Amino acid sequence: MSRMKLLRIVVGLIVIAGALFIIIGEQLSGASGNAFVNARITTLRAPIAGSLQLTDRPLGARVGVNDPIGTISGRRVDDVRLADLINERAVHQANVDRMAVTIQSLASAIDKLRTRAAVYLEERTQQLRAQVDAAASLSAAAAARLRHANTRLERSTRLSERGIQAAESLDEARSLAEVSELELKNAQQQGAVSSIGLAAAERGIFLGDGYNDAPYSEQRISELEVQKAELQAQLDAQTASLRSIDTRIASERGRVNRLSSATLESNVNGLIWDYLAASNETVQNGQDLLRLVDCGTVIVSLSVSESVYNTITHGDRVSFRLDGSSRLLDGTVTRLAGSGTATIYENLAIKPSQRHLQRFDVTLDVPALREDQSLSCLIGRTGRVFFDSRPLDWIRRLWA
């Protein structure tokens, strides 16, 4: 009976020692009791001045990148420059249209003159051919008369030598022969001139009085083609200027449109944290309108005692457990800021308490808070951070 009692005493002592080990191990392990989930804040500002209209979203509503949040209708924009450019374009367009019509008229006139010149060439060539034929006929007739006159002169000369015919008849025959010879030479010269004119006309060159080598139609065509070329060069320059004005108008219209209205869009995947302006409020360019929490920058903020702080180093592996949950989340120490570090929270969603600032600040990176959808963006949730292993961690891992 004494042995049984001794055994019970020994077992009781072992149980008491184990319980003390667990209690002391749990209590003495480095831990933080005021850790909370935090994230960086981004501020949307007014791109233009005007009247603000916000979409109906409550505080804390989730938004994605490029989600519309509101619009700003700008006050009356100075569009004098745009109006001047539009008027300038109208003047250039009128000049372009006028030059195009003038060039078309010149082209039509040139076509008509070319037709007229072609008709003139054909008619003039036929005329010269007729003159050549007429000169040939005259030359043939003159040659026939010259032969007749020479025959008569020879007969008169023989009769005069015999004394049968008077000297007057011989002189008359001699004069007739000389006249016939002159007529033949004249006819031959006319034929040569007509042949030269015909040959030149067939090459497109006209010989005559009042012009050098071309008729009036062709001379006029040359003048009109010079005018057309000059107008075409001016038209090309005006067209280039018109394209430049169109580019400037598009740029100025874009500027006016940008100043007339603007759409506010979320630049992060996160939460609407705070409205700094209300719908129908007149805002100024660059004014802060609302703050968004960037859920892609979730961290864990905590403070610890000086004794625990001095045992922590950058990169230490730790465990984080949300209050009300038994799941342990792996984390890493990313920043050791010390005490009284209120300024590092200026761009974070959750600001520290006075008690927090009296202790030593630590920042953790806990990937599961970003990667696990069930834990996504739990801004403000509290928990505990454990820096050392504890006796009951194996049980917690089984439940996690």
What does this structure look like?
The protein is α+β, with helices and mostly antiparallel strands and 400 residues long. It contains eight helices and 14 strands. The chain has helices spanning 2-28, 80-162, 167-202, 216-260, 306-309, 354-358, 368-371, 393-399, and strands at residues 31-38, 41-45, 50-54, 62-63, 68-74, 261-265, 270-275, 282-283, 288-294, 299-304, 317-322, 329-339, 360-365, 382-386. The protein has a six-stranded antiparallel β-barrel. The two termini are 45 Å apart. Residues 24-29 and 390-400 have low confidence and may be disordered.
List keywords for this structure.
400 residues; alpha+beta; 4-stranded antiparallel sheet; 8 helices; rod-shaped; disordered C terminus
| Poorly predicted spans | 24-29, 390-400
- Give the terminus-to-terminus CA distance: 45 Å
Tally of individual helices: 8
Largest sheet: 6 strands, antiparallel, barrel
Radius of gyration: 58 Å
Element order, helices and strands? Answer: HEEEEEHHHEEEEEHEEHEHEH
Sequence of strands across the biggest β-sheet: 1-10-13-12-11-14
Task: Give the quaternary arrangement of the chains.
Answer: single chain
- The proportion of residues in beta strands is 15-25%
Shape: rod-shaped
The helix/strand class is alpha+beta
Average pLDDT confidence is 79
